Amino acid sequence: MRIERPIALALAVSSGFAQEPPAATFGTTVVVSGGLRGAIYHIRPGSNRLPDFARLKPVGVIYASSLNVPPQSFRDGFPGVTKRFEWFAIDYTGRFWIEKPGEYRFSLTSDDGAKLWIDDGVVIDNDGQHPPIEASGSATLEHGVHRIRIAYFQGPRFEVALVLKVAPPGEDLRVFRTDDFRPPPDQWTDADAQAAAIDNDFVRVTRRTVEPHEPSQNDAFNRAIVFLDKSKVEIGARARNFDAGQVAWIAAGASLQNAGRKPARLVEIALKKPGPVTPPVRARELDPVLIDPKHNKLLFENDQVRVFRSWREPGGTEKLHEHVGAGRVAVSLPEGDVNWSGPLKHAVTNDGTQKMEMIVVEVK
Predict the structure, then answer these.
(1) CA–CA separation, 233 vs 134, rounded Å?
(2) How far is CA 98 from CA 49, 139, 191, in A?
(3) What is the pTM of this model?
(4) How far apart, in whole angstroms, are the C-alpha atoms of residue 69 and residue 90?
(5) Are the beta carbons of 303 and 364 closer than 8 angstroms?
(6) Residue 289 phi, psi (nearest 5)
(7) Going from the N-terminus, what domains does the chain have, and what CATH number goes with each?
(8) Peptide bond into 112 cis (omega under 30)
(9) β-pairing, 2-3 with 133-141?
(10) What would the pLDDT profile of 261-316 be if each residue is shown by its tens digit?
(11) Would the CA dihedral through 359, 218, 139, 182 be positive or negative?
């Protein structure tokens, strides 16, 4: 990657900007499918650099398919999520598809500071409190899905600006629009999903590491999330803390973002089918939660899954029990190894010298 020295811009909109209709705001509260998600923060008056977002609590979320706010009056620059028009910051994240590999040039104009990351690498550093300035950089991108992040802050009032442009190999700069970088219909929109550990008619199970401020892609399915690390995440607009081994249920369409300061390892179990009209029947004498509550603790149950935590001491053998319905996903703790089986009766023995512990997700 190459980062070039910023070049000061005049406050008036240049002829290059005139070719692109200016956006009235930095985004909308309506979710933009496949677009950028911007978490909004209030920052300390007098700030002259981008904040440490991990230390701040977001006050709202906006969405955009492009960042195209040319230099303009602060009165025209911010959506109605908050009334603040100065001393705020926005942290945009998203993913985009590269069809043609090669060197891509980027341009970032901002008032005040902004930075651009591609796949965790800084491509443009335009930070600091300053008038509208354009900075440029480039990144060599391979075919496939890439992560993008743009952090921006507005200091004192008067002018605002935030414009991100891109030039694919052999082309001129134009406003970066996520609609121009969508994957083909037969491709995954999430690079991590290509490495799904289990993918069958009932579930898609993916082990992933979510970096700080990186959102998980919205999913069309309901999901059970098993956290392998102590994590602070945002589900929708609500921040929650989870200990290692805890499980969250996330409805279809909801997003998950790592709001902590460290990477979060998790196992995501997406349910491909709705719950059955008639729930599966299990004999009480074969229900592991009922016959052995010491070793099996129910976490939650709904019309699609029953989730419980199970453990066994070294040398211990389970009581004979039954898993009914479509099958079950077992997630080992703390490693996060996963296993799928259809409906079955069994009694597992822990032949190891360490405690055996797992999360069991029974799919109805």
Answers:
(1) 33
(2) 31, 12, 12
(3) 0.53
(4) 13
(5) yes
(6) -70, -35
(7) 2-181 (2.60.120.1560), 191-271 (2.60.120.10), 284-363 (2.60.120.10)
(8) yes
(9) antiparallel
(10) 888 889 999 999 999 999 999 999 999 999 999 999 999 999 999 999 999 999 89
(11) positive
